[in-house]
Design brief:
Elements lengths: L1 H8 L7 E3 L7 H13 L5 E3 L9 H13 L5 E3 L7 H13 L5 E3 L6 H11 L8 E3 L7 H136 L4 H20 L9 H86 L5 H70 L5 H58 L5 H49 L1 H8 L1
Helix pairs in contact: 1-2, 2-3, 3-4, 4-5, 5-6, 6-7, 6-9, 6-10, 6-11, 8-10, 8-11, 9-10, 10-11
Length: 597
């Protein structure tokens, strides 16, 4: 029955305690128990009191081999089993290999002195047995005391070992928690680095958009310069037209002078011949007048037909005098109106300059205050971040070897990305500086064109003075024509001066915009330095920079609005100047003469 029971328990995994007390187990029972101990892994307590396991040495040896192979049994009761000293020796050999048994009860057996020594010797190798009962075995007292001391030593060792295991378990838990915490911190750090990368990429995109806006502003300024060049070309064309008119007037004056000289000679000869030849005088005068008219038609090419008769010429001179008087009055009235408009434009431009200057000073003060506040806040954040970083480095000094290498790689990638972004920013800035240089060259060309126009005006004034010297001997018609010419020249000078003032205003605006762009470059450089200093944790700094960039974009929009307003004013002025020139050309007497021709 025991063999069947123990055979069934060999594969059992739920029974923890087995009590077979008082069942008269002998050889076959001992062998079945040895097989159970070799195969079963769940039984922790085995009670075999009041049996006869020691009757057969072969059966008990088989039991001891099973005990030697078992590493799960903790309590074994072998009281009253007729165990002698030889079987005690085999049990001692099994105990040397066993590492799980903690309590062994061998009372009321026949172990004796030899068995006691064998058990005492096995205790030098077995460190897990904490309780060994040997009463009623004829074992000397000194051996019993030695066994008790060994048991005490094992108990102390087991206590220390359990405490050590508990401490090791607690430390392992703490180490795992620390590892988890540091892993979480490392993941947070990597997330922060990823966020910083995203912020840097976003700031790079914002910088690209801002540079494209600056590029558009520069393109608009270039278009303004091209429009100014077109205006200068129109002015040059107007000056060339005025020069042509002056040349035509000079030819007209020369032809008129020659005509008057020839007419005076003819009248002198007619007066002398009148004394001698009264009858032929009228015929000769008619021939002289026809010859003079033919000569004038060949020489002038741009002047109306001369008077066919001397009497009709006097009437025509009087009519021309009246026309010139009316034209002079009308031109004076237009000059007064133009001066009033010019004065109003000057006052309005001066007011706009004062407003822009005050607005620029306010913006500069606001920007300096904002930059100082942002620098102070950045320094405070740097100090706080530095303290946090030092604390984290001290805590992670033992478990951070792998994390440091990955962080170094991440920082190298960040540095590469920053260097690439900085290189692209420098290239864009160099491109903008090149465009600014081209704009300054175009401004110099405009100034050269102004100087050429001044020279042309000076030449026109010299020609006008020469014509005035040649026309001193003519009649009031020539004097009125000279006054008309002088008034025209004065209008030209005023128009040229107006254009010069407008060009100087445009140059001043361009210089102001260039200074603003230099300020923007300095701000961009300051932002790059701040970005380099706050490479670890500066999400808030990036938000501040985005606000600054928004302010800069607002300023750019304001400047674009100013530029568009200036462009509209320039277009109005150009249209006004073109209309004034066209009305002047169409309303002048020379224009009417040329149109009749």
């Amino acid at each position: 029955g025991v063999k069947l029971l123990l055979h069934g328990l060999c594969s059992n995994t739920t029974v923890r305690s087995l009590d077979l007390k008082g069942n008269n187990l002998r050889t076959e029972g001992a062998e079945a128990l040895g097989k159970l101990l070799r195969q079963n892994k769940s039984i922790r307590s085995l009670i075999l009191e009041w049996n006869s396991l020691g009757v057969s040495e072969e059966g008990f040896s088989f039991f001891c081999q099973g005990l030697k192979a078992n590493n799960f049994l903790q309590r074994l009761d072998l009281r009253n089993n007729q165990i002698n000293h030889q079987e005690a020796g085999e049990l001692a050999m099994a105990l040397k290999q066993n590492a799980s048994l903690q309590e062994l009860d061998l009372r009321w057996n026949n172990i004796g002195l030899l068995g006691g020594r064998a058990l005492l010797n096995c205790l030098h190798s077995n460190k897990t047995l904490k309780r060994l009962e040997l009463a009623g075995n004829n074992v000397p007292s000194d051996i019993l005391k030695a066994v008790e001391q060994a048991m005490d030593h094992n108990q102390d060792r087991q206590t220390i070992l359990s405490e050590t295991q508990n401490r090791a378990y607690i430390l392992s838990k703490e180490i795992l928690s620390l590892k988890n915490e540091k892993t979480k911190q490392f993941l947070d750090l990597m997330d922060t680095i990823d966020k910083q990368r995203e912020d840097i990429a976003r700031s790079g995109r914002i910088s690209t958009a801002r540079i494209s806006q600056l590029q558009e502003a520069l393109d608009e300024q270039y278009s303004i310069m091209s429009s100014l060049k077109a205006k200068l070309q129109m002015t040059e064309a107007a000056l060339a037209l005025s020069e042509q008119k002056v040349h035509n007037l000079g030819e007209l004056l020369n032809a008129t002078k020659q005509e008057q000289t020839s007419m005076a000679e003819q009248h002198f000869t007619e007066l002398q011949q009148q004394k001698r030849e009264g009858a032929d005088r009228e015929d000769k005068l008619l021939r002289d007048l026809s010859a003079a008219s033919e000569k004038n038609l060949l020489l002038r090419n741009q002047v109306d037909e001369l008077e066919k008769k001397c009497k009709v010429q006097q009437d025509q001179l009087f009519q021309v005098k009246q026309d010139l008087t009316n034209t002079t009055a009308e031109l004076k009235l237009r000059a007064v109106q133009a001066e009033e408009r010019l004065e109003m434009e000057k006052r309005r431009f001066k007011q706009s300059l004062e407003d822009m200057e005050s607005l620029r000073l306010k913006e500069v003060d606001h920007m300096t205050q904002h930059i100082e506040a942002s620098e102070r806040s950045m320094q405070d954040r740097l100090r706080r971040l530095e303290a946090i970083r030092i604390a984290l480095e001290e805590e992670l000094s033992q478990v951070k070897a792998a994390a440091l290498t990955e962080r170094g790689q991440a920082e190298e990638e960040l540095i590469k990305v920053r260097n690439q972004a900085r290189l692209e920013e420098r290239q864009r800035l160099e491109h903008l500086e090149e465009k600014l240089r081209l704009m300054t060259e175009s401004r110099d060309e405009a100034q050269n064109c102004c100087l050429k126009q001044k020279q042309m005006v000076a030449e026109a004034q010299g020609k006008a003075n020469q014509l005035s010297l040649h026309a001193d001997g003519l009649r009031r018609r020539l004097e009125e024509l000279q006054q008309d010419l002088n008034s025209k020249e004065e209008e030209k000078v005023t128009e040229v001066n107006k254009l010069k003032v407008e060009l100087q205003e445009q140059i001043g605006h361009l210089q102001a915009e260039r200074a603003a762009q230099e300020g923007l470059r300095e701000k961009i450089a300051a932002l790059e330095r701040q970005l380099k200093a706050l490479s670890s944790n500066h999400h808030e700094a990036l938000l501040d920079k985005e606000s600054e960039i928004a302010m800069l974009l607002e300023k750019l929009r304001m400047k674009e609005a100013d530029i568009s307003r200036m462009r509209e004013e320039e277009a109005q002025r150009a249209s006004f100047l073109q209309n004034a020139i066209m009305t002047y050309v169409q309303g002048s007497p020379l224009g009417t003469h040329s149109s009749r021709k």
